[in-house]
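User: structure tokens for this one?
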Amino acid sequence: MDNTSEKTQWYLAEVVLELKPDAADKSLIFINWMLVNATGPDAAYDKATELGAEQSTHDPTLRINNKSAQTRFRGIRNLTPIHGPLEHGTEITFDAITDVSEEQIQKLVTEKSELSVFLQRDDEPDWPTAEEYGL
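Assistant:
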């Protein structure tokens, strides 16, 4: 059973891209959250896959730490239907967490000054490692 209705036209696709310097053992992974407009789940999957493939690159000028690098589409992590119009206040998706203590709730909430939209961007982003991300 799919989790869609006939009214669903928009989907949220989590597109996984790998950025890897040539001859490197490890990669930098981007999970891009992209809007997809489609008539149903299968069409949304196909369109999300096309979007990911379009982001793959074999650009010889792409370099990381003076080493040539490639961007490769690795797949779709999730595809979520959006059950409402794209306008202010529409719920796009949600997480539900059970058995949460007050201390844990406090850890979920971020102060305004620490939200990514308010942080200064440095030349070198401080990306989490796979271990820090829980992989």
